[in-house]
UniProtKB/TrEMBL annotation:
GO terms for biological process: base-excision repair. Zn(2+) binds at C14, H27, H181, C185. InterPro entries: Adenine_glyco, DNA-3mA_glycosylase, DNA_glycosylase. Keywords: Metal-binding, Zinc. It comes from Paenibacillus mucilaginosus 3016. It comes from the Bacteria. This is 3-methyladenine DNA glycosylase. One of its GO terms (molecular function) is metal ion binding. Pfam families: Adenine_glyco.
Amino acid sequence: MNATTVGHDGKLRCRWCEAAPEFLHYHDTEWGFPVSDDRRLFEKLSLEGFQSGLSWRTILVKRENFRAAFHHFDIDQIARYTEHDLDRLLEDKGIVRHRGKIEAVIHNAQRAQELIKREGSLAAFIWRYEPDRSQLAKPQTASTSAQSIALSKELKKQGWKFVGPTTVYAFMQAMGLINDHVEDCSIRIKVETARQHFQPPG
């Protein structure tokens, strides 16, 4: 099966970006581009947790609602959430109202504070798990990797929730630790260039 699709501009892209209208911009401007901002990394880990059992489109179309509901994923602010905030979020129809997942974000914010205090930043810790190119499977043929398994295991050891190996692998794809655009995708070279100019934190 052809892994690419031809866009309205005549350029080849990963086939998955034609599955929903919201995917094209996300594919072209975000997915795979390296990220070192702690807030964005925490947001993506949180949203990947919310995606568990759901589609990414469900989460993506609600992303701005999530950002508003969770104070733009400010780690310190979320770590201070109280029962009042939990009740507020459970009543928010703009997000996924799953108690376990909401509680996990609050819990994980507290674990993130501990990690940042210990490691200097969430990014410095996360980017230690960037895989060597030789260890990667062919683009979009894997749902986990040795590195996602290792990162998942370490996060769980530190007490994080909803960070299984598949969730972590999707996070690594999205945040640029892996360039998983297929070989013929026109965005792959842009991501590769961004990765070459990226200075890993830490």
